[in-house]
User: What shape does this take?
Amino acid sequence: MKKALPIVMLLVALFTVTGSAYAIQQPIALPKIAVDIGKSSNPSDVAVTLQILALMTVLSLAPALLIMTTAFTRIIIVFHFLKQALGTAQMPPSQIIIGLSMFLTFFIMAPTWNKVNTEALQPYLNGKLSQQLAYDKGIEPIRQFMFRQTREQDLGLFMKLSNIDKPNSRADIPTLVLVPAYAISEIRTGFIIGFVIFIPFLIIDIVVSSILMAMGMMMLPPMMISLPFKILLFILVDGWNLLVLSLMQSFG
Assistant: This one.
């Protein structure tokens, strides 16, 4: 063992010296990255720069567009109400709730996005449609989805606030008016579903609280006793299945 140790140390030193010598002879090439700001005599260069800035702005707003023009708003509100009704502040974790909401959103929006891809995106990428025409065709399926979920009262509110004349058809309603009307309609629908979810769990809390008061257990928190019963009720009725089914049917 004592004889093997110097041999190992010699080999390590040899590999280290050899590797260092090879690194000196063959330096590692690193890529050069540079950002220049200078004068331009070509107006097209300025136009391209502005287009890049506009694209970066749109990408930064992509999460907001995903929330405001899809089914995500209603789903996340309902799941939040469910956690509050159950009384499990940390279960399921927020990451799981958001992930489930996103995948349910993808599932609900899949027919709409497939239509956008077929009618607008693919023809534009193949050079069959101009950029403006591709936008007009691509936004139409999304507008149809939002129109189905938006109340007329909410549309009328934003039409009035924007001082736009009464439209003859849905095509005359601007998208900038439709999106906020759709958003508040989704929030309202999510609150209605959340209220319905609260009722059975609220009844359990009232019953448990009344029983504890009748037994003279004033210092025992009712939430500690009612929580297992609420979880048991939710499991026995297959709550996740019923809730997801109700959410899917609400977008019909």
Observations:
- The CA atoms of residues 74 and 188 lie 8 Å apart.
- The chain has ten helices and no strands.
- The two ends are 77 Å apart (CA to CA).
